[in-house]
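Continued from yesterday's entry.
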Amino acid sequence: MIGLQAILATGITGSLLGKSLSPSHRRDDLPGSEPIIDIHQHIHYHGRTDEQMISHQQTMGITKSILLPAGRDVNSASTHFGVSNGLQVKAGGNKDCYEFAKKHPEAFTFGACEVPDLPDAVQEIEKYLKLGAVIIGELKFGVDCDSAGMQKIYQLAQHYEVPVLMHWQYKMYNYHFERFYKMLEKYPRVNFIGHAQTWWANIDKNETDQSVLYPKGAVTMGGLTDRYLSDYPNLYGDLSAGSGLSGLTRDEDFTRDFFKRHQDKLVYGSDCADAVGQGKACDGAGIIAAVKRLSPTKEIERKLLYKNAKKIIRI
C-alpha cells in the first residue's frame, strides 16, 4: 500500500485521497471489514492540517466522517464576544467543510451551521442543506436552547429531515438543559443529538452541581440525560470528545447497562483534535476502544459504531 506521506509529497491528494485511497474505499472492500462512521469531526481543528486530519481518521479506522462546521466569526453575546468563534477550537466554516467533502466524497461528508441569532442564520444553513449537508451542527453558542433563533433552526431541520447536533455546556453553550424536553415535545419529527460536558455529567441521577463539568466516580441510573434518552424517541447521544470518554469510563458497570438500555440511541463521534489517531492523546481511539470493551454484545457495538448513524443520518 502506498504510504500517506508519499502520496502527499506528489501533490495529487485531491484525486487520490478522494477516490481509490479514501478510508471508505480501502477498508470497506476488505473481507470481513467493519465500517465505522464518525459523526463529529472538524477541519482545521486547533490548526491541524488537512493531511493530518485524513491520516488521523484513517488510523482510527473511520470509513465515513462528517465534518461539522463553525458559524461565521462575529462579535456578539452568543459568541461570547468572539471567544466562541470557530467553535472555540479554530474549526473551519461551512465553505471549508463543503469544499473538502466534495474533494473526498467517499470518506467525508459535511454539516451546516450558523450563529443562531444572526438575521440570516436560517438562509445560510439552508444554502448548505441544499448543497447536500446531512446534519445541522455543531450548534455551540451562548443562547437559550428554546430561543426564537434556535427554534427557527429546529423548524428548518424538520423541513429538510436532518438531525441537529447540540453542544451542552452549563452557563456557556445552549442554556437550560433542564427545560429542553419542551423542544423535544414541540419538534417530535426532529432527531436531536446531545453532546459535551453537561450532557454527559447528567447521566448521573446524583449530579447536583452543574458547574462540575467532568464528574468522577460511580453513576446512579436516572440522571436527566438518561431519562431524556428513555422518554424521547427523537433524542440521541453523541459519544464524542473527552466528555464522552470520561462519561463512559467513570463507572464501567453503569456504562455496560447504559449501552444495553440505549443501544438504539447512541452514535459514535470522535471530536478529536490530535494528529495521530491512536494512543492516550486520541479521545476518538479511546472511545472506540471503550465501545468495543463495554458493549454487552457484538450487535450493540455495531449499532454504536455504525448502524445507528446510518439510521438517522443520510450517509
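--- second protein ---
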Amino acid sequence: MRIVDASVVVPARDEGKRLERTLDSLAAQRFDGGLEVIVVATGAKTVRIARAHPTVDRVLADDRREGPGSARNRGAAVATGDVLLFTDADTVVPPSWVRRHCRHYATPEVVGVGGPLRPLENGLRHRACFRILSDWWYRACWPIGFVQQPGCNCSVRRRAFEAVGGFDDSLGYLEDTDLSLRLRREGTVAYDRTCPVDTSTRRQERVGYGRLCWTYLVGYLEYALPGLSPTREYF
C-alpha cells in the first residue's frame, strides 16, 4: 500500500478546462512525500474530466450541491494523509505548494496553514485589489487572532480537523474563516505569505469588488452576532 503523507481535496462544481488546469498544477508538485489527489465532482462533464486526469487518485461524484464546505468534508472523510490540503477547481497552485504547506507541520503546535491569493487574470485593478484584500488584509488580521485561511489555499493537520468537526456545511460562505477560528483552539494557525496561489477573478467580475466586500462585511457581522449566520443564498 502506498504511504500518503498529504492529501489534496478539490471540490469541483460544473467545471471544465479550469479543473484541468488545476489538476495539471497538482501533477507538477515537487514534493518528496506521498501525495494523493481527491476530486469531489458535481456534474457529469466534471466527473469525466476528473476521472480522465492521471494525477487524480479518487473521484467522488456529488450531486447534492450543498456547497464547498460539504464537498470538502466528503473529500476529507476518504483522505488518508496526515495533512489535508484544500484548493478550488478554478485555482492554479505553484509547484512548491504542497511542500511549502507541509514544512510548517514540522512544528508540532501548527494545526493549520493559509496563504495569499493572486488573480489568474491580468489587469492592474485585479492585482491591486487582490493584494489589498487577499494579502494585506490577512497580514493585518492574523496577529490579532482573526485568522482566515482561504478555502483555495489552506491546509490542516488531520487530527485537528477531526477534533473540530471539519467544515461547518450549514454555512453558505465564510466556512473557511469559521474553520480557521475553531482550529485556534487546537494550536497555531500559520500564515505563509511566500505561498500564494493564482485563482480566477470570475466572481469579482460578476458581482464587483465593492459588492463583494459589502457582502463579506455583512457576513462577518452575521457570523459574530448570536443567532445569525451568513446567508446561503448569496453564492
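Residues 119 and 199 are 5 Å apart (CA to CA). Residues 124-141 form the longest helix (18 residues). Will compare against the first tomorrow.
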